[in-house]
Amino acid sequence: MKLFSGLSAFPITPATPDGDVIEADLRALIRRIAGAGADSIGLLGSTGTYLFLTREQRQRAIAIAVDAAEGLPIMAGVGALRTDDAVDLARDAALAGAAALLLAPVSYNPLFEDEVYAHFAAVAGATDLPICIYSNPTTTQFTFSPALVGRLAADLPTVSGIKLPLPRNGDIAADLAAFRAAAPELSIGYSADWGLKDALLAGADCFYSVAAGLFPERAVALARAATQGDRAEADRLDADFAPLWDLFRAWGGLRVAYAAANRLGLTSAQPPRPILPLDEGLVGPVAEALAG
């Protein structure tokens, strides 16, 4: 199975203002990704606005995506404030045909390591689907230490991968080595697309990409060049994405992804409130980035 290796594409979840999934738009996005040769799809990630959707809306999104993907594995986000809700979402995802779960320790109150461990243990006990740890400290206020990741991987057989942020000091190789030492059998992957090239050149097992949800063919080509160690080709392809990376850094992948999807004619859906669309003054820079 291609899960937890190569390139995982993370699309938006086109929906009405009430959160009802726009089936035709989601199907088109999923088919576009599948046709481009991505290794998996990360549905209902942060860019997929999972926390803005109800349990029923999430389940419907998974069912649509699984049907449209035609065998490409779907990893579904099941993060929730309450552990019992995350357990229910995990069971729903399994019933809807997801191949794996993406789990972030979402909480209004910052969590301790033992609390996060218990949360993961409960979700892992709900299904036999493999779990990818979603480390997103900017949003969750929780940072996974290598020691905790090693404990989760050793104690919970279905914990199979981790989606990490880029290290703040920029030393991906050292960060990768620390997590591999703590959890030798775990797939180690990264996100934040401006690090796609460097993470895969450094030997990461997987990259979790918002850009691949918009430009799957170009992102697949970049990922393959980096995975194969072709630095010159990876540099060339990465340079084409540079204006988009700048927008991601400045405004966040979610807002830019919606603006880009609108501009490309993939959907007219807007981000869920209170998130607002990008200001009109940024339409020009977005168009220029897409042209590149």
SS summary, helix count: 12
- Total strands: 8
Named at the architecture level, the CATH assignment is Alpha-Beta Barrel
CATH class group: Alpha Beta
Strand order of the largest sheet: 1-2-3-4-5-6-7-8
> CATH homologous superfamily, by name?
Aldolase class I
Describe this structure in words.
There is one protein chain. The protein is of the alpha/beta class. The chain has a single domain, classed as Aldolase class I (TIM Barrel, Alpha-Beta Barrel), CATH 3.20.20. 48% of the residues lie in helices and 12% in strands. The chain is built from 12 helices and 8 strands. Helix 10 crosses helix 11 and helix 11 packs across helix 12.
In short:
The protein is an alpha/beta fold and 292 residues long. The protein has helices at residues 23-36, 55-69, 83-96, 113-124, 137-140, 146-155, 172-182, 196-201, 216-227, 231-251, 253-263, 283-291, and strands spanning 6-9, 40-43, 74-77, 100-103, 131-134, 159-164, 187-190, 206-209.
Tag the structure with descriptive keywords.
TIM Barrel, 12 helices, 292 residues
Which helices and strands occur, and which strands form pairs?
Layout: E1 6-9, H1 23-36, E2 40-43, H2 55-69, E3 74-77, H3 83-96, E4 100-103, H4 113-124, E5 131-134, H5 137-140, H6 146-155, E6 159-164, H7 172-182, E7 187-190, H8 196-201, E8 206-209, H9 216-227, H10 231-251, H11 253-263, H12 283-291
Parallel strand pairs: 1-2, 1-8, 2-3, 3-4, 4-5, 5-6, 6-7, 7-8
Helix pairs in contact: 1-2, 2-3, 3-4, 6-7, 9-10, 10-11, 10-12, 11-12
